[in-house]
Amino acid sequence: MNNDNNDLFSAPQPFANASSANANASISVTELNRRVKGLLEANLPLRWVRGELSNVMRAASGHWYFSLKDDAAQVRCVMFKSRAQSVTFTPENGLAVEVRGLPSLYEARGEFQLGVESMRPSGLGAMFEAFERLKLKLAAEGLFDSARKRALPGFPRAIGIVTSTKGAALHDVLATLKRRAPMIPIIIYSTAVQGADAPREIAAAINAVRVRREVDALLICRGGGAMEDLWAFNDDAVARAIYRLQMESEIVVVSGVGHETDFTICDFVADLRAPTPTAGAELLSPDTQQLRAYLAAQTVSLTRVMRRLFHTKQQQLDFAQRGLVSPEERLKRERATIGQYQLRLARALRRQQQQCRERVLAHAARLGRARLNTDKPRRTLATLGDDSVRAFTTNIQRNRYALGRHAQAFNLLNPDNVLTRGYAIISRSNDDVVTSITGVAVDDAIQVRLRDGRLTAVVTRTL
Fold it and tell me: DSSP states of 175-204 as a string?
C-alpha cells in the first residue's frame, strides 16, 4: 500500500482471532457481512480509482448511485448528498472520471461497493489546477468583488447575447425572451463557444458590446457540456473583457454558461450567474403577464383617483358658478348705484342752495336792522355771495366729475358697447344667458342679440 502499483491489500486472515474451538460454530449472515465490511474498510484506505460511469441515477434524497467500469470489470458506487454537492459538473453515462472512494460492503445485500468522497473528470487534473490558479489570481486583483457588481435593470431597452448562433442554447434563450418580453429588442453577438479560437472570439464580442453601447444588459451563454467543452469561458482574456465592460459602461453582465452544476471564471466575474442560459433569459426579461396585471391594477387605481378628482373639481365649479353674476344683473346693480348717486347729488345741491339763501336772508335782515354804514355789510355780503357762488360752482363741478366717472363705468359695463365691436349675447328662449356650450344641446332654439337687433337660431352641433 505504499504506492499505486502495490496490491490493493495483502491477503488478510479473516477470523484469525477465532479459536480452533469455535471454528465449526456457525455465524449469521449479518455477522458475516459486518466482519467482511470491517476487513475491507480496515485494509483499503481512500484512493483514486478511474473508470467510466454507467447506470447513473440521482435519487430524490440527493444521493448518487452509479457503476464505475473499465474493459474488464465494474464496481457499484454510492456518493451521498453531502459529498455530491461539491461536484462541479453533471455525471453522465459514458463519462470518464476519477473518484476518490473507500471500498466497503453494503451489509443489507452483501454487495461490494465504493463509497465515493469526491469526483473529477478523468485526465482533467491539470485543467482543474489551471482553473484554480486563474481563479485565485483574478480574485486577488478584485475582478470578483461583489461590491462593484450591479443589479439587473427592471426593464432593459435592449438585451445583447454573446453565444454561438448554431447552438441549441440560443434557441431556448430566444424562445424564453419572446414568451416573456417580446417587445424588447435582441442583439446577437455571434462567436464560437468551443475550440482553440473561442476565447479570442468571445473576448472580441464582449469588446464590441462595450464599444457599440447598444444594450442595457448582456447575456453570455452556452449549453452544458464537459469541462473541456466549457474551457473557453475560463480564459483570462474573456474575464478581463467582461471586467472592462463593467468598468467602462453601465451594461449589466449575466453569465449563463453550462448547467446548474457547472462553474466557470465567467460566472465569477459577471454581475450575476444564472444556472442555465434559459434561466439567464428569465432573469433579464420582465414577465409581460405580470406587467400587464400591474398596469391593469395601476389603471384601476388611476381611474379611481381621476374620478374622485373630477367630482371634487365639479363641486368646486358648481360653487364658483353660484357666486357668478350675469352681466344684466351687474348692470342693474350699477344703474341702482348711479341712481343713488344722482339722488344724493340733487339733495346736496338743494341743501347748499337753501343754506346760501338762508345766509343771504340773514345778512339782509342784519343789514336792515343795523341801518348804519352799509358799505361794509354790502362788501361782506358781496364776498359771501361770491364765496357761495364759488362753493356752489365747485360742488357742481365735483359732482359733475363724479357723475362723469360713473357714467363712464356704466358705459364700460354696457353690453351694447361690446356688441358694436362684433360680439353677440346668446340666450335661451327664456332669456337665460348662455355662457358655455354645455348650456345648450343640439336642436335647441337660441336668441342671438347683435348691435342692431336679434336673431333666432337653432343649434346643429357643438364642438
Answer: HHHHHH-TTS-EEEEE---SSTTHHHHHHH
